Amino acid sequence: MMPSSGNKTSDIPAVSVLRDSSIGIYLPRDVLYCDGTSAILPEDYVLKEGNLRLFIPKNKVEEVVNAMKTFGFHEDGEKHSLITKFFYDIWDLRVRIYDDGFIDGRLEVSQKYRKYLYNYTVPSIYEVFEFYRTVYNNLYIFDNVANKWIKEVRVHYLVTLNPPSSSTLPFQTTVGPLSMVGILAYPLSRLICPSF
User: What are phi and psi of 155, to 5 degrees?
Assistant: First the structure.
């Protein structure tokens, strides 16, 4: 369902999460590529930044950057390097949009909490898409190492990000079938093979 309020900041659904709660994000595991081949992506592979990348057409870069700024992102030194707070001030969502249309996103521990959680980072795909889909509603995921476009994700890793007050590790990874990932229904419905 597309947002209809016209007010960008209210277009992202509000999520009520306690400050000391863990949050979960999803990363692809079992994928089908546009060329018909498939792969099971190892956990360490999907957790390495730059292996799985988002893509938008070059002519949409400025529009996507401007849309993300309306959601509270601000530039962080480099052109099209954007950052915003993600779930209070514990995690930052950092997004780098390149002139060729590729996008790298990651969640990282904010500066304030690095002494407790070190400098952990976790790649972000669907969270970034949720911000730019108001101006570009197709989801392209590129496997940078395999040099292939992903057309379907059948199973995901659930990466649980724990708050600094937690006695557990900063993040933990588990595997879940697609049926457990109802929150991803919309982004996955927009995942397509590029036609360019």
Answer: -140, 145
Alpha-carbon separation of residue 159 from 83, 92, 120, 124, 173 (angstroms): 20, 16, 12, 10, 4
pTM to 2 decimal places = 0.81
What confidence tier does 55 reach under pLDDT thresholds 50, 70, 90? very high
Tokens at 134, concatenated: 């108001």
Q: How far apart are CA 170 and CA 151, in angstroms?
A: 31
Distance CA 86, CA 27 (A): 17
Asked if residues 82 and 76 have their Cβ atoms less than 8 Å apart, the reply is yes
Q: What is the pLDDT of residues 122-135, one digit of tens each?
A: 899 999 999 999 99
- For strand 23-33 and strand 148-161, is the pairing parallel, antiparallel, or unpaired? antiparallel
Q: d(Cα 27, Cα 19) in Å, to the nearest integer?
A: 23
